[in-house]
Amino acid sequence: EIDHFYLIAKGGQDVPWNLLPICRNCNRKKRDKLPFDYLNEKTYSECNEYLEGVLFRVTNNHEDRLQRDEIIHNLVMKLSSKE
User: Residue 37 and residue 29: Cα distance in Å, rounded?
Assistant: First the structure.
């Protein structure tokens, strides 16, 4: 199952860097607990590190696309002005 690491009902967001795959049994046991109330310190740290990586990849990819789009826009504008 896909689980919100920080529950939406307790302030979490529905974004890729708050979603983790989790087995059905663990999800049922977790219920409405916050991750640091449910997970041991090592597992909590590993999950948090994974989600920070997701955030970095998503935001970096978005910035790369914005920069690429800006470069393309500027090239099109230059070519248009030469006609």
Answer: 12
